[in-house]
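Data deposition worksheet. Section B asks for the primary sequence of the deposited chain exactly as it was used as input, without tags or linkers unless they were present during the calculation. Section C holds the resulting structure in token form. Section D is free text for depositor observations; keep each observation to a single sentence. Incomplete worksheets are returned to the depositor.
Section A, Depositor: J.P.
Section B:
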Amino acid sequence: MRKIPVVTAITSGLLLLPMAHADVTQLLQNNACTACHQPAARTVGPSWQEIAQRYGDGSKSAEQLGSSIKSGSSGSWGAIPMPAQAQLSDANATSIAEWILTAPHQ
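Section C:
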């Protein structure tokens, strides 16, 4: 069996590491997510804690939630729709979703 060096795996895109908390926080701020969402308090939209509680059971994967972030949604959390965040790459939307589903939000 031929071993692939880690550097080769990283540069070829075979090894994907989770985005660091600080990087996700920066994404949230850069894309105005914090204007409507907060860690533990509902504002315009649900808190990240509420989202994690609803979907943390595996009923929605990070990829599915990331897709909802990119395409927007309405009716899932009340009358106010979430606008599409099409400017996010699929990878960044999934990283945000993964962070929401797994990080402690307080």
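Section D:
Helices lie at 6-11, 21-30, 48-55, 62-71, 90-102.
The first helix runs from residue 6 to 11.
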